[in-house]
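Our working data are protein records whose layout never changes between entries. An example says more than a description, so a record of this kind follows.
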Amino acid sequence: MRAAGLLKLLAWGVGLYAGLCLLAFLAQRRMMYFPDREPEPEAVPRALEARLVPWRDGKGAVLGWRRAARSGGPRILVLHGNAGDALGREDYLPMLEAAGFEGVLLEYPGYGPREGERSEASLVADARAAVRQLKVESGAPVILLGESLGSGVAAQVAAAEPKLVAGLLLAAPFARMTEVAARHYPYLPMKLILRDRWDSLGAIRGYRGPVAVVIAGQDEVVGAEQGRRLAQGCPGPVRIWEVPRATHNGLPLTPGRPPWSLALAFLHERAGMKQ
């Protein structure tokens, strides 16, 4: 009876764990993507307050946000992290503009006023289309700034479209999402159940352009070591700047100041752009 009771208890435990794994599998995208949603009639006035206008595709749908005036110079497409929306990243623009770039904020599908599925495949496909649209507008270089989850988008787009991407600027990046997920959920087999795997380390090996990496030394979300490993996997020119006391969301964005001024100067030089 004692052995039978233990087996029954073990079976209950295995069943509960399997149920937990199934729940995590089904709900994982809700655990990974945290969008701020806002209808277009509300988002546009908010953008105008920040001196931005909608950036639209050929059918008139909102892709993201940018300044009304076009500089004609190199562009940096900002690919934001997994939470919030693109308008919440307007603080990047003064820093980019101080270095001579036009900043363009891409809004992901399922974020802000945009409809669509939130998934690895949809975000990457959308960013690739955005890069192609920028290149149709002008032959000026396009650099991708990937923040956190956006670094995964940037790495995959660069690997898929190496001739269209002049360089990468990766902020608080990660090497593999499976490793980040395992760090936060060590009791779950994340390497087995994760659908959106975001293997940036694998993708970056297919891109030989210049890569600038800005690491938060106290990164509590992905860990600083993830960014270091990603940089080590870059086959092309790469430079790392680490801000020792910065947290994942605490990297300073002061225009004209390190690390961004140095990172952007590096990309200017390595991508062969005129200052």
